[in-house]
Structure formats: C-alpha cells, structure tokens
Amino acid sequence: MTAQGTILVVDDDPQIREVVRFAVGREGFRVSEAGNGRDAIAAFEREPADLIILDILMPEMDGTEVCRTIRRRSNVPIIFLSSKDDEVDRILGLELGGDDYVTKPFSPRELIARVRAVLRRGAPASAAEAGEGGLGRIVHGRLTLDLDRYAASWSGREVVLTATEFGLIRTLASFPGKVYTREELMERAYAYDNVVSGRTIDSHVRRLRQKFAAAGGEPIETVHGLGYKVGPCD
C-alpha cells in the first residue's frame, strides 16, 4: 500500500476507468480496477481497498448489489458513480451504505475532493482532538466513540459504521444536547461537500438510527423544524 492508500475503481467503461485511474494516481493513490460487479467483489476479496469508486449501472452485477454484498463484510468507504442525476437513485445509493455520489460527467478535481473528504470523515482524531496522551474518546452515557480507531459502541456493544456515518455521529456527540441544523451538519460533518443535500443528511441519520437500534440504542433525536441532536443516551 502506498502512503495514500489503495482505491478500487469499478466501471464497465474503460475510458471512465482510465480517467479515474489517472486522477487518483496523480494524487498518490494506488489503483486497482474491475470492469463489472462480479470482478469487483473478487478484486476486493483478493486485496481490500481503502476506498471504492463504484459505477451503478454495470453488467454481471450492478453497483447497488455490489454495495450490498461488500457491506455484509466491510465498511470500506464507497463513492457511487452514475450517469443518472435522479435524486431517487442518489438516495438509494446512500441508503444502501454509500458514502457519496458523483454524477457523470464529472470533473476529476471534484472527484478527488470527494475522495479526500470521505476519507477525512472517518480518519482518526488529530493530536489536538485526542487531547493529552493521545486518547481520543467521547463517552456520553452508553454511547462511546473511539476517535483514534473511529469505532463506535453502545453499552459496550460495537456498532459498525461507515466513515461518513462515524463523521456524522462524532459531530453530533461532540456537543451533546446541541441542536445541529442540516446546514450545520453539511458544513461540519461534510466539509468540502458543498453539493450535499438535506435529504442526504436524513438518509445517513436513518442508517445511523437503524444501526444503533440493533444495539439497543437511540442516541439521535429529531428536533422538529430545526435538525438533530444527541440526547442523554441513558
């Protein structure tokens, strides 16, 4: 692995793969490729990547099914690529566990910005965030966030989150009780993602609630007409 990490690029169009390979390779990432969904899963099993750029419409297995399959075993960040600009498709990709969505045709510069933003959301806390001794941890009632390992738990039970989901709950839990509007969450949890929508936030919150509910928890509260907050977590 290079210092930047490995990105798996999955698209049935070789020209798109070439554009993406050149863009991310120039930024120092190592690139592996697949031309269809089945090959993508096989490639990921051979060599897990640090991030996947995944086309939705492909032969052999479409991108949504690839995402479902990978999410059963990994929370690797996934950025969807699609020629569709329909918000329903965008939300579907996010509901399945995607971290972001880029519509074709796209600017390589925008794609790189999205890649870095997604990786940054789940990155371990900086020394400043971690505090003295480098122990980065938020403990609020039964909710625990380990910022050094970007891991979450409820009453000691692990809650496996994607990078984007962890970035969102970390933002909310940093100031328990504070109400964050969707706009504030876009700015803080989705830095540099200036095209993210309020419905995108809602989709990720729904997934967070489902995952914590499976562990017996309900950390996120809706403040109607305003936004979201982390409640008492008792």
Number of structural units classed as domains: 2
Radius of gyration: 18 Å
Helix-and-strand structural type: alpha/beta
Share in helix: 40-55%
Average pLDDT reading: 83
Secondary-structure element order, N to C: EHEHEHEHEHHEEEEHEHHEE
Contiguous low-pLDDT stretches (5 residues minimum) are 125-135, 191-195
- Tally the helices: 9
Largest sheet: 5 strands, parallel
- Class of the largest domain, according to the CATH hierarchy? Alpha Beta
By CATH, the superfamily of the largest domain comes out as Response regulator
CA-based shape: elongated
Percentage of residues in strands? 15-25%
- CATH topology (fold) name of the largest domain: Rossmann fold
Query: Order of strands across the widest beta sheet?
Result: 2-1-3-4-5
Label the CATH architecture of the largest domain.
Answer: 3-Layer(aba) Sandwich
Termini gap? 42 Å
- The total count of strands amounts to 12
Concise synopsis of the structure shown:
Helices cover 41% and strands 21% of the residues. With 234 residues, the chain is an alpha/beta fold. It folds into two domains: 6-121, Response regulator (Rossmann fold, 3-Layer(aba) Sandwich); 127-230, Arc Repressor Mutant, subunit A (Orthogonal Bundle).
